[in-house]
Structure formats: structure tokens, C-alpha cells
Design brief:
This protein is of the alpha/beta class. It is built from twelve helices and seven strands. It folds into two domains: 2-59, no CATH class; 66-252, Phosphopantoate/pantothenate synthetase (Rossmann fold, 3-Layer(aba) Sandwich), CATH 3.40.50.12640. The structure holds ligand PTJ. Ligand PTJ binds at residues 43, 45-46, 49-50, 52-53, 56, 90-92, 116-118, 175, 177, 194-197, 200, 213-214.
Length: 274
């Protein structure tokens, strides 16, 4: 009975989004998050996080700016140089782009590890299953016999996999919380984040912050990785050493403020009622 009721709720949220709707893509992505929440993949707070992300995406114009291409390129170079790169997966990102996460892990020879902020064993298994259904072979983070802990952290994200985040040198953490970024850096890990908010503690604390929407960043990183994969190590090292996260975040903020100024000074589209 409860099961039938749940299916009805889930089917109710399948809106028919007309293709010519001016916000079609944003609504489609929003649907993925809502669906993910009903499937217990996305935490309730994941909906709030998504809304915050949408607001910042508006500010950058809902497309990848040039500064983000540079951030993504530096991130891919660092992952390719890593001895043991790991991609940390939470509920939001598993719902939004599971196939692309798997492709990115494959092209970067990285492990995928499920690591949740609102951790419950059941949710961890469901997120793992979501990745497996999309073709992932060896998802880490869900087998308690490999669990260990990052003592610098107090909340449930401290539970990590010995074969993954615990022994990794570079970790990509899309949609992260600032505390874990700090903790991972304190124990000597290089941290790459994807966070639309350039002001977040996560962005400020990361080695490389990508200020872009994960739904664009991850597929674009796959293409960048294909191009950089055959480059010499020295070329990759140069890309990484030329990158300065602090300056890059300043560039992101300048981009947003210039864009808003231009809109305020007259480039804002006026509504035409025909
Ligand atoms: O699945 P769990 O249990 O691990 O929980 C995941 C959430 C996202 C709920 C948890 O990590 C959380 O509460 O995150 P915060 O602290 O709300 O931070 C999320 C950040 O991601 C915010 O700065 C948002 O602007 C940003 N964000 C949201 N959606 C996107 C995004 N950045 C890039 N792409 C998005 N689609």
C-alpha cells in the first residue's frame, strides 16, 4: 500500500515540460533532483542546496564562462597527474549526472566513492546502486569492512573507504561542504571542488574550485581529459602551477559583477508583449 502510494507521488512529479519552455533545461534538471529525493538518493537538504546553486547559475548566465574552462582544465590536469585520484559522490551529483561521472572516472582512471553528508547506510546503498545501474563496476564507500575515519571531521562524512578517499592524493568533490574540504586539506590531500558559489568556504578552501554547474562541468571535463590525456607530464604540471585558486575566484567574482553591472546599465532584456 505504502509502495503504491510512493509510486503515485513519483509519477505525479513527472511534469511534461514543453521543449519550447524558456526554462526547459533548468526544469528538467530540477526534476532529476526531485525524482532523486523521492528515490532516497538526494537528501532533503539537497533540494535546498540545488536551489542555491540555481540562483548562482543565474548570476553566471547559465552557461560555462571562460574562467570555468580554465578551472576545469587545471582540475583535469591535476587529476591526470595524481597517483590515486578519487571522485567523491553525493546524492545530488548521483541524481544529476551518474553516467558522466562514470565516464569521467574512466577517462581519468579514478575511483568512485560514495560519501554522504547526511549519511545513512540505506541511502549509501541506494546511491551505490544508482551508479551501478548506470554501469559503474567498483563503487567504493559502501563496504563497512573497508571503512576508516578522518578524525579531523566530526560529522558522518568522516567515514571513508581505505581503498579510496583515505589513500587518495587528489579528490574531486562536487557539491561539497566547507568543513570536509578543510579537513582533507589538513591531512595533505589535494581537493578539487565544483561549486557554483564562489564565496563558499568550500570554494575558498579548495586547491582548485570550479565555479560551474556540475551538469555542464562534468561532461566538459570528460572532453578536456580526452585532449590532455596524451600530453607530457611537464605540460600538465605547467597547467597546474600556472593556476592560482585565489586569483581564479577573484576572476569569477569580477565576471559576475561586470555581468550584473552591464545588465543594470541597460542590457537587461525588456519583456515584449505581442
Ligand atoms: O547527499 P549528501 O547527504 O552528501 O548531501 C549533499 C548536500 C549537497 C545536501 C550537502 O553537501 C550540503 O548541504 O551542501 P551545501 O553546504 O548546501 O553546499 C552545496 C553547494 O553546492 C552550494 O554552495 C550550492 O551553491 C552548490 N550547488 C548546488 N547545486 C549545484 C551546485 N554547484 C554546482 N552545480 C550544481 N548543480
Amino acid at each position: 500500500m505504502i509502495f503504491i502510494y510512493r509510486i503515485e507521488i513519483v509519477s505525479l512529479i513527472h511534469l511534461n515540460i514543453p521543449k519550447d519552455h524558456p526554462r526547459a533545461e533548468s526544469l528538467r534538471v530540477r526534476e532529476l533532483i526531485i525524482e532523486g529525493m523521492h528515490e532516497n538518493i538526494v537528501a532533503e537538504a539537497g533540494l535546498i542546496a540545488h536551489g542555491r546553486g540555481e540562483a548562482f547559475d543565474y548570476l553566471i548566465g547559465e552557461k560555462t564562462p571562460d574562467f570555468a574552462v580554465k578551472q576545469q582544465t587545471a582540475a583535469v590536469a591535476l587529476m591526470l597527474l595524481a597517483e590515486k585520484p578519487v571522485i567523491s559522490v553525493n546524492g545530488n551529483v548521483a541524481s544529476l549526472c551518474p553516467e558522466d561521472l562514470i565516464k569521467l572516472a574512466s577517462v581519468l582512471s579514478a575511483e568512485l566513492e560514495v560519501n554522504l553528508f547526511y549519511r545513512r547506510e540505506e541511502r549509501s546503498s541506494i546511491v551505490t546502486r544508482k551508479l551501478e545501474e548506470n554501469g559503474a563496476k567498483n563503487v567504493l564507500g559502501n563496504d563497512s569492512s573497508f571503512h576508516t575515519s578522518i578524525d579531523e571531521l566530526t560529522h558522518s562524512r568522516r567515514v571513508v573507504d581505505k581503498r579510496g578517499i583515505h589513500s587518495a592524493d587528489v579528490i574531486l568533490v562536487p557539491l561539497e561542504d566547507g568543513d570536509r574540504t578543510m579537513a582533507l586539506r589538513k591531512i595533505g590531500k589535494k581537493v578539487i571542488t565544483i561549486d557554483l558559489n564562489p564565496l563558499s568556504r568550500t570554494s575558498v578552501w579548495s586547491d582548485i574550485s570550479i565555479v560551474n554547474n556540475v551538469v555542464r562541468a562534468i561532461p566538459e571535463m570528460i572532453e578536456i581529459a580526452k585532449k590532455l590525456k596524451n600530453k607530457k607530464q611537464d605540460d600538465l604540471k605547467k597547467i597546474v602551477s600556472d593556476f592560482n585558486n585565489y586569483k581564479s575566484l577573484q576572476e569569477s567574482l569580477s565576471f559576475i559583477s561586470l555581468r550584473l553591472n552591464k545588465l543594470a546599465e541597460g542590457e537587461l532584456e525588456k519583456p515584449k508583449i505581442e
